[in-house]
Each structure stands twice: as C-alpha cells, then as structure tokens.
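Class, study these two lines:
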Amino acid sequence: MFMAGPAVALLLTKRRERSDFGDLVPWLETFCDPVETDDDGSLDFWIREPAMVGAPPDLDVAEAALFNLSHDDDFGMDGEDYSAFTPPPVQGLTVSAAASGRTNHLLLGYVALVIARRLGALVDFDGLLGYGHRLSEPDTENEARRAEAWQLVSSLPGVIREVSWDRRDGDGGHGWSHVGDPEFLAAWLEHPEFHLIK
C-alpha cells in the first residue's frame, strides 16, 4: 500500500473477506479508469468523474493522484478504544491517495464518504482534524491544541468522537484520533478548513 498523500480508515461492524471487493469494482468503474486489483487484493483507481461522488465539478482531475482501497492490516494494533460506538467496529479498510494537495484531499474525502455510506462504515481520520495530525500526550500545548480541535469538529453535524490509541514506542503513552460517521464527513467536506491527515 502507498501513502504519500492523505489516508482514512473505514471502520466496519461486519467482516468482509480479504478479497471481497468484487461488489465495489463495477460501481467504481462507473466513475474511475482503470480499476485494477493488486496482488494483495487491494484496488488501485484513477477518478475520471469527480461529480459522480459528489465532488465539486470544477476539480481538475489532471491533478488527481492514484487512489487505493485496501484492507487495514493494522486495525486494532494500536489498541484503539472504540467503546463509544455501538456496535464497535471489527475490521478496517484504508482509502489513500498517492499524493497530497487540495484536489487529492477533496477527492479522497468524497470517495471515502460514498464508500462509507455504501458499507455503513465509520471514518477514522487517523489524527485530530483541527490540529492536522496524530497528537500524543502529555503536555500543556498538546492539551490546548486537542481542545481547539474538539471545539471545531464538535460544532459540525453528525457523530464525531475522540478515540485514544496506544503508542508503540513502549513508553505507555497514548494519542487521539477523530472518528466520525458519514454525516460528519459530509459536513467536514463543506467546511472552509477541510483537510485530511497526511
């Protein structure tokens, strides 16, 4: 999997088989060229018609990167606490862009939104949206930034939660990521400060 650009995880409450993207391929082919299956079962695709996913029609697809949909092999590895969601997610998929830039952030957001709606998935933004990346504890500056990020996202419609995760560096610390429902992502896409985490 590549991730030179932004990425989000789609959190599923029902398991899908590793190779089970067959139902998504015909649908993706209606607005992407081409849709290719990699050896690991993931899908690579270029977005041909952004309006098909609700993206602004003036987005220049010439600036668009290659996108990838894959199973999230790291799901649950950081001890994420999804107890605020019922039922809790049991599996993750990752949607990512091969490059950054405003066009790719927007296209990734809209593609993630339509896939999340199709699959009934939550969206893990892999960081704090108002802050711009994963935030680890503890210090006063981080807590202030965390509070500012929460003030921003909690003002939008939909469900949004802070989810804690354990750092893998062995020091016992943890950090936070925002996880929201499709309604929240739709509102975030319309917000003037919209961005994803790179």
In short: Residues 7-126+180-190 form one domain. The beta strands are 7-12, 32-37, 43-47, 67-71, 91-97, 122-124, 135-136, 160-166, 174-180.
